[in-house]
Design goal:
Elements lengths: L5 H5 L7 E4 L9 E7 L6 E7 L39 H25 L8 H16 L15 H15 L3 H6 L8 H17 L7
Antiparallel strand pairs: 1-2, 2-3
Helix pairs in contact: 2-3, 2-4, 2-6, 3-4, 4-6
Length: 209
């Protein structure tokens, strides 16, 4: 069915740079994937959800582009309980940690562009978490500073993301050697996006207190 062949469905738009599997976020009776697609100024993120037609509803916060079957309107914002995660091999865990690293890294870029001077961006802490799991999988030391500035500037946040990307790159071939898979095309697109974010953040004004 469509769910079993969903990677082929995702590729109808363009070949994804990576596809994140996050079964804890699956809707009841369905599945979801985050796909990262190539773009001129950096990757584009698309969240895909598949549910049974009988259970499909339009959330209140949805901006509908097209509806071929007349879906009913949901009366409240979408909320899913976390779904149980099926057992996965250590190789698949490593693969998804790599995908999760780049997804969170790109989301952190997005939030720096939106909120350059916000003191704490929670997503910034998720990126090194994936990196630690990757380093443990390949058995590599990780020279990762644990202490960060209390109120980092946009430039310090961007430097941190650059540092994290530089730390993961030499680990990627080792993941493949140990049976994991990596998104081979993501790196140049990620750096292109970071350059755009850096330009946006550089032009932002420091907030007055």
């Amino acid at each position: 069915g469509l769910i079993a062949q969903r990677y082929d469905f995702l590729a109808q738009i363009a070949q994804p740079l990576l596809v994140l599997e996050a079964p804890q976020n699956w809707p009841p009776g369905g599945v979801c994937n985050m796909a990262i697609y190539p773009g001129a100024s950096g990757p584009h993120q698309a969240d895909w959800y598949w549910v049974r037609r009988s259970a499909a509803q339009l959330p209140t916060e949805t901006q509908l582009l097209f509806d071929r079957i007349g879906l009913p309107q949901q009366g409240s914002p979408t909320y899913f309980d976390y779904a149980p995660v099926p057992e996965r091999t250590v190789e698949e865990e490593a693969t998804q940690n790599v995908n999760g690293f780049w997804v969170m890294w790109l989301i952190a870029c997005k939030y720096i562009a939106r909120y350059p001077w916000k003191a704490h961006l929670g997503v910034m802490r998720l990126v090194p978490n994936h990196l630690r799991e990757i380093a443990a999988f390949v058995g590599a030391p990780l020279p990762l500073p644990e202490i960060e500035p209390l109120r980092p500037s946009p430039g310090e946040k961007i430097a941190r993301l650059r540092e994290l990307a530089a730390l993961i790159e030499p680990l990627l071939p080792k993941i493949v050697e140990k049976g994991g898979a990596i998104p081979t095309q993501i790196v140049p697109y990620a750096y292109r996006y970071l350059a755009l974010v850096e330009a946006i953040a550089h032009d932002s004004d420091r907030p007055t207190i």
